[in-house]
Design a protein that fits this description.
Blueprint (H helix, E strand, L loop, with lengths): L1 H20 L10 E6 L11 E2 L3 E6 L2 E6 L6 E4 L8 E9 L8 E8 L5 E8 L3 E8 L2 E4 L10 E2 L9 E9 L2 E6 L2 E7 L7 E6 L3 E12 L9 H81 L8 H31 L7 H39 L25 E10 L5 H4 L5 E5 L5 E8 L2 H13 L6 E6 L1
């Protein structure tokens, strides 16, 4: 918190100093004409070039520039134009081209080897940029790195529109005006003097209406030696102060750029983390749903298979019962056939005693079938009980009742809910054994068993918390399932 306060104070102080010196260079003293090109005819400052890569000619009162090279920009140096403090005025119009990033700029204080200079340029998107040429590479002095130094401004016109540019420089301070409106101020102490010119990007067309440069007129009024010394000392102090202010401006610009870049990075990181958290939460919910569905399927599978293999002599019992059942069915079929034939055929009349014997035998077989069905039902229940024992559920814990079961809760609608399954029983359970649980209800299965559940929740987190509560109340095998409501 303390660091933020110090940083805010520093920014405010630098901002106040910057505002106090901005737009302080007056153009009134710069009345001596050094360059005055209106491009009505060929002049001595700018070259006429007509090659396959460059076409720089005088056309309808403009200096027409067409850079045909598609890979690199081109610098046009103004001849005999090495100056220190000056006011430069020009009018630039960028024409339509295939280059969506077309730009044109002004060269300031280019050095003799032409490998170092300061560049102010504008593009077709209403943006400006200040950069420095160092050993044939460029370093942005304005804007953010991710925008390559370009800054948007409402006062800059777009494609095929004139932009009147005025740059005032004094003691390495630069004030920039566009279309008679103040744009920005910057400072660069690297070059005391240098040449001026133009720079055009690859595959770009532009027109220059005029190019004027004025310097300060030399004073002819004699002054006393003491006055000169005072003036010299004053100028020295002013220059020191200006340098300090300029240093603060540079630091302010760098600091602002770093803060903006850090804030942007923080926003991007926060957004990325939020998206990842949401994705992980969605994945967890989907996995929990899948686990609950698998658990439900496992339970139903166990009930349907009944684990008959845990009973002794199961194969012999099943084989014997099947054989007896088939024999009884065969005997019934034969008896019915004989009975039907005897009733329809008048030539073979049976005695009443024989009919009674057949009826008695039929009754005996039907009773035997009934007994076998009862035995099968008992075996089915025995298989279920054995399955419960194999899964850690004691048969003594299953409370059987013959009275009417408790009514089942109805699930209406078609939305998903989460609930907790805590047991599977062969009979409806007594309310007194379940009253310690909240919102208990059950579902019947195709095997005649009762699946008991507790609670209805909208998300798996609440259902998991309830499952832990149910487990603590004596149902350690409880788990969360998903149902359609």
């Amino acid at each position: 918190m303390k660091m933020k306060t110090i940083l805010a104070t520093l920014l405010l102080s630098v901002s106040l100093i910057t505002n106090s010196i901005a737009q302080q260079i007056s153009s009134e003293a710069y009345s001596h004409t050094e360059i005055h090109e209106n491009f009505s005819q060929e002049g001595k400052f700018f070259p006429i070039i007509n090659t396959t890569e460059n076409q720089f000619i005088i056309d309808n009162g403009d200096y027409f520039l067409s850079r045909n090279n598609m890979d690199s920009q081109y610098i046009i140096n103004c001849n005999n134009s090495s100056f220190s403090d000056f006011v430069l005025k020009t009018s630039i119009r960028i024409g339509p081209s295939n280059n969506k990033n077309a730009s044109i700029g002004i060269i300031l204080k280019s050095q003799r080897k032409r490998e170092e200079a300061i560049v102010f340029e504008i593009n077709t998107k209403g943006e400006y940029r200040i950069k420095q040429l160092l050993d044939n590479t460029y370093k942005a002095l304005s804007g953010l790195r991710k925008h390559e130094g370009w800054i948007k401004s409402k006062i800059i016109n777009g494609v095929n529109e004139h932009n009147a540019i005025e740059i005032r420089t004094e003691n390495n301070h630069y004030d920039v005006y566009i279309n008679n409106d103040y744009l920005t101020t910057f400072f660069n102490p690297d070059y005391r003097r240098g040449s001026c010119g133009l720079i055009i990007s690859a595959e770009t067309k532009a027109r220059i209406a005029y190019y004027h440069l004025n310097t300060q007129a030399e004073s002819t009024t004699p002054t006393a030696t003491s006055t000169s010394k005072i003036t010299s000392n004053t100028n020295t102090e002013l220059e020191k102060l200006n340098n300090k202010i300029a240093t603060l401006e540079v630091n302010n610009a760098r600091l602002s750029s770093l803060i903006t870049e850090a804030e942007d990075n923080h926003k991007e990181q926060t957004k990325s983390l939020t998206e990842k958290n949401n994705e992980q939460a969605t994945t967890i919910i989907q996995k929990e749903k899948k686990i609950a569905s698998l658990n439900r399927r496992i339970t139903n599978f166990k009930i349907s298979n009944l684990k008959v293999e845990k009973l002794e002599n199961k194969d012999e019992i099943i084989k014997k019962l099947t054989s007896e059942l088939e024999n009884v069915k065969l005997e019934i079929s034969v008896l019915k056939s004989n009975h039907s034939t005897n009733e329809s055929n008048s030539t073979f009349s049976l005695s009443k005693d024989k009919q009674l014997d057949l009826n008695s035998e039929l009754y005996t077989l039907n009773k035997k079938i009934s007994n076998l069905e009862t035995t099968n039902a008992e075996l089915k229940e025995l298989f279920i009980l054995k399955d419960f024992e194999a899964n850690g559920v004691k048969p003594s814990d299953l409370i059987k009742r013959t009275n009417a079961p408790s009514s089942k809760n109805e699930i209406k609608g078609n939305s998903k809910i989460y609930t907790v399954q805590f047991g599977v029983f062969t009979q409806v359970q007594a309310y007194s054994t379940l009253k310690i649980l909240d919102e208990v209800w059950y579902e019947t299965t195709e095997y005649g068993t009762y699946v008991y559940l507790s609670g209805q929740f909208k998300n798996p987190q609440e259902a998991t918390a309830h499952k832990n509560k149910v487990a603590a109340l004596g149902y350690p095998n409880a788990f969360v399932v998903t149902l359609t409501k």
